[in-house]
Design a protein that fits this description.
Elements lengths: L1 H24 L7 H7 L5 H11 L11 H15 L6 H6 L14 H6 L6
Length: 119
């Protein structure tokens, strides 16, 4: 059960922080700790740790001083990247929206008003 809660927290941070980082600093491989700190000013301490584990360069993180960041990076690597190393750019790419992939529209109202309508 705790793993499910952890995964939800990680997804929430990805969803809320990715757009801020792209808008504020552009798309890049890693973000600095200062950029992450400035973007997560209203986040909780746990969400800040998750953000650092997601977007910061592993060489900038002192894992001996804060071992929970290492565990978070391992969890993210396991959950989303099949155990491989990842960069901040890979995390940003997770946010790509699905949307309609094509195919038949069986709903008559959508045919009349368009796919984006909520009739």
């Amino acid at each position: 059960m705790l793993r499910v809660i952890q995964r939800r927290r990680i997804k929430k941070v990805i969803k809320s922080l990715s757009a801020r980082l792209i808008k504020g600093y552009g798309s890049r491989d890693f973000f600095s700790l200062g950029q992450i700190k400035a973007s997560t000013s209203e986040f909780s301490a746990r969400q800040y740790q998750i953000a650092v584990a997601l977007y910061a360069d592993p060489q900038d993180i002192n894992f001996e001083e804060n071992p929970t960041l290492k565990f978070l990076r391992n969890d993210v690597s396991h959950y989303f990247f099949d155990g491989n190393d990842y960069t901040g750019q890979n995390v940003l790419n997770l946010l790509v929206l699905g949307g309609w992939k094509g195919g038949r529209i069986d709903d008559d109202m959508s045919n009349r008003f368009g796919m984006g309508s909520r009739y």
